[in-house]
């Protein structure tokens, strides 16, 4: 059994072993039985399409231990829907919602010891993934797939938790193509972001803020998260075909509307950055991570978003409202949480 001697208040976003993972194979045109494994390895054919042609998709969601002791998984159905879209996007077998749900619940139940305590700021990150298994040397989709879910406790994605970090724009790299795989959660998108991401980190930025790959005129998203800005009290977030439809962004837009904040989801020109009062990266891992400065490395231009280096008031309000729903401190009026029986 894995070690639970964990300093819950100080974990980062890494891999901490847990006890079990769950797996299901797609063979002969159908999904099989859910299998439970205590091994952290998988055995696959060396010619599997996942290894050669990138047939790999994944998801990220979280389970939280609430103030009332209950464990809640946030927006399971939205992630189930998105992994099916990703599967269709790169011609993999879609995982039915019910199978996705059962496997998420099972993975959380089996690893209950690893759900961080309420108040620690940490959560149990749930990482479903699907890979093509068939040995195909010709470039074509696999006939057999493995869908599995691993879980690991995590703290904040960016060091320092809810505090500002800087991001940069660099036009020498694209993460995805204009009509490519950016709208799906495909492993290859992340491989394509590594060089730019590493360069950004070396220069002291938490992430790259990508522009649209066609015209390089509009804001797309960050390497691991969507982008939003606050301008004259409005929530502004890019609409684009080359970004991932973020469940967190969708939730924040709804929370903003619930709080009476106007929401604009539309193309956002890069010049508009100069007019933003606040900005943040949002995602399951990033939650809502406030941005201090946006530096355009090509134009040698620095946009100071947070003058005092602190998270802005609207971002803070939205962050707190989202966390309160996830932790069971506020009413879940949109039915986003799945309560896990333990
Ligand atoms: N954009 C990218 C590229 C991501 O990897 C993620 C993380 O999942 C997001 C956006 C945020 O999506 P979500 O809020 O569904 O986690
Ligand atoms: C998430 O936020 O769940 C992600 O997948 C982002 C990242 C860790 C790649």
Description:
The protein is built from 7 helices and 18 strands. With 342 residues, the protein is of the alpha+beta class. Strands 1, 2, 3, 4, 5, 6, 7, 8 and 18 form a 9-stranded antiparallel β-sheet that branches. α2 (76-89) packs across α3 and α6 (247-258) crosses α7 (313-326). The longest helix has 14 residues, at 76-89. The radius of gyration is 20 Å and the shape is globular. The site of pyridoxal-5'-phosphate has 12 residues, from α6.
Task: Please describe the topology of this protein.
Blueprint: E1 21-27, E2 30-31, E3 35-37, H1 49-52, E4 56-58, E5 61-65, E6 71-74, H2 76-89, H3 97-110, E7 123-132, E8 145-154, E9 165-169, H4 187-191, H5 194-202, E10 207-211, E11 219-222, E12 226-231, E13 234-237, H6 247-258, E14 263-265, E15 278-283, E16 287-296, E17 301-304, H7 313-326, E18 337-340
Parallel strand pairs: 9-10, 9-16, 13-14
Antiparallel strand pairs: 1-2, 1-3, 1-8, 4-7, 5-6, 5-7, 6-18, 7-8, 10-11, 12-13, 12-15, 15-16, 16-17
